[in-house]
Amino acid sequence: MANYVFGVDVGGTTVKLGLFDQSGTVIDKWEIPTRTENGGEKILPDISVAIKAKMAEKSITKEDVAGVGVGVPGPVDGNGIVHRAVNLGWAEIDLKKELTALLDGMRVEGGNDANVAALGEMWKGGGQGHKNLVAVTLGTGVGGGIIVNGEIMTGATGAGGEIGHIHVEDHETEACGCGNYGCLEEYASATGITRLANRALKASDKDSVLRKGEVSAKTVFDAVKAGDELAIEIAKQFGDYLGKGLGVIASIVNPEIFVIGGGVSKAGEVLFEYIKPSFEKTTFHGSRNAIFALATLGNDAGIYGAARMVL
Amino acid sequence: MANYVFGVDVGGTTVKLGLFDQSGTVIDKWEIPTRTENGGEKILPDISVAIKAKMAEKSITKEDVAGVGVGVPGPVDGNGIVHRAVNLGWAEIDLKKELTALLDGMRVEGGNDANVAALGEMWKGGGQGHKNLVAVTLGTGVGGGIIVNGEIMTGATGAGGEIGHIHVEDHETEACGCGNYGCLEEYASATGITRLANRALKASDKDSVLRKGEVSAKTVFDAVKAGDELAIEIAKQFGDYLGKGLGVIASIVNPEIFVIGGGVSKAGEVLFEYIKPSFEKTTFHGSRNAIFALATLGNDAGIYGAARMVL
C-alpha cells in the first residue's frame, strides 16, 4: 500500500524536502543545498539520493510511496517539462522523466513553485475548504498561483498565474525586472514598497519615523501601525495598486478566496484594510465577494503543495 | 445509441436552437422568440416544446439524444444554477434540474452564453486545435470566455471570464453599465469606440470623414482603412486599451490564442495591428507568444458551444 508521498521544493540555494502520509501529516522534513554549478546537473541526482536515503532510514519501500511532487522556480508545462529555471541554471529539462528514471520508476509530478505553494495553501493552509483560490506571494517579487476547481491553472506554456507582472500603471518610468513598465511587482513586493516609500519621502516634507532609520516593507507597516501619516500614505498607494491588480484577477478568474503570503504578509490583516477599498471599487460585482485570508504555511507551502500534486 | 445533441443559446429576444450529430455537424437550426414576461417563466417550457417537436419531426427518440446544452446571458455556476439573468427576467433558477424535468429526464448542461460561445469557437471556430483559449466578444458590450485545458473556467459563482469589466483606466469620469469606472468595455465595445470617437472629434480640430456622417465602430474602422488620421488616432486609443486588457489576461491565464468576435470584429485583422503594440508592451514575456485570430462562427458560436458542453 502506498502510504507515503514526498514533497520537494527546489529553491535557488536550498532544496526543501518533506515526507508526508496520505492525509497530509508531515512525518519528516529536511533540506539539502542546491548545487547550481554546471547547469544545475547535480540537482535531480541530489534529490534522488536524499529521497532514497530517507526511504532506507524509515524502512520505506518503493511500493509504499505514491509518488514525488516537485516545485521548481520556473515555468513547468502540463507534461512536467521545465522551460528554463534561471536560478537553478536549468535550460529545458524533462523533470518528470529524468527524476522518475533516477528514482527507479517512481511516479513524479512537477509544477511551478508559486503554483505549487498555492495548492499547498489550499490543502493545508489559509485556503482550506476552497477549490477556487488565488495565492499571492508578496516577497522580494510578487508571485502567484491560481487554483481552478482544485487544479493548478498551468496555462499553455506553464506561465499561468504570473500575477506579479500584470500591468497596473501606465506612467511608470523605471523598468520591472521582467523588462516591462508598470508591473504589479513594482509596487506590491517588499522591494516595491521600499521604492514607493523612498519616492514618498523625497516628494514630501512631512515628518515621519521612516526618516530616522531603515526603510523597508516591515518598517513601513510598523510605522502604519504606530499611526505615522506618511507611512499611511505609502500603504494607501501600495493598497491601491494591489487592490486594483487583485480586482482584475477576480473579474477574470472569479475566485472564492485570495490567500496572501510572503514576507510582506507578516504585517498581518492590516494589509487588507489598504487593499479592499480599491479592490471593491474596481472588481466586477459578480466577483466582489471574494474573501481575503493570510497564508499560514510560510516556507512549507511548497513541500505541502508538491506532495498534494501526487495525491 | 445517442447520436444527437441539442445546442440552445438563450438570448433576450430569441432563443437559437441547433440539432447536431456527435461529430459537430449541424443537422438543423432554428429560432423561437424569448418570452420574458412573468419572470421569464415560459422560456424553459418553450425550449422543451421546441426540442420535443424537432425530435418528433425527425423521428428521434430520447435514447438517440446525448443531451441538451444551454447557454444563458447570466452567471451559471458549476451545478447548472443560474444566478440571475436580467435580460430573461430570471432570478435564481436551477436550469439543469428544471429543464431535465421538462424533457422527461434528458441530460441538460448549462453555462454562461459568453463562456459557451468560447467553447464553440474552440470546437468548430477560430480556435480549433487549441485547448487554452480566451474568446473576446466586442459587441454592444465586451464579453469573454476563458477555456483552460479544454474546459470552461466557470469561476466560484459563474462570473469567470468577465473580461469586459477588468479595470484599465484610473481616470474615467463616466460610469460603466456595471457601475464601476474605467472598465475595458467602456473603450473596446462598439459603444465604447463610438464614445472614444465622439470625445476625439470634440477634442480635436482635425478634419475627418467622421465629421460628415454617422459615428460608429464600423464607420471608424472604415475611415481607418481609408487612411483618415483622426480615425487612426481613435483606433490607437481603442487598441491601447484592449491590448493592455488582453495583456493582463495573458499574464494571468497564459492562453495559446485569443479569438476575437462580435460586431466590432467585422473590421477584420486590421484590429490586431492596433491591439498588438500595447499587448506586447504589457504582457509578461512567458505569455507574449499568444496568437490572435478572428472568430468564425458568428451568432452560431453559442449553439455550437452549448452542444459541445454535452459531449
User: Biggest interface in this structure?
Assistant: A-B, 46 and 47 residues
Number of helices of chain A: 10
Biggest pleated sheet of chain A: 5 strands, mixed
Instruction: Tell me the fraction of residues in β-strands of chain A, as a range.
Output: 15-25%
Shape of chain A: elongated
Number of domain units of chain A: 2
User: CATH homologous superfamily of the largest domain in chain A?
Assistant: ATPase, nucleotide binding domain
Based on the coordinates given, report the CATH architecture of the largest domain in chain A: 2-Layer Sandwich
Terminal CA distance of chain A reads: 14 Å
Question: So what's the oligomer here?
Answer: homodimer
Text of the CATH class of the largest domain in chain A: Alpha Beta
Strand order of the largest sheet of chain A: 3-2-1-4-7
The mean pLDDT of chain A is 96
Strand segment count of chain A:
12
| Fold-level CATH name of the largest domain in chain A | Nucleotidyltransferase, domain 5
Percent helix of chain A, as a range, is 25-40%
Short note summarizing the structure:
The first copy, chain A, has 311 residues and is α/β, with parallel strands linked by helices. Chain A has helices at 37-40, 43-57, 95-102, 113-124, 185-188, 190-203, 217-225, 229-253, 270-282, 301-310; strands at 4-10, 14-21, 26-33, 65-72, 81-85, 90-94, 108-112, 133-138, 142-148, 151-152, 257-261, 291-294.
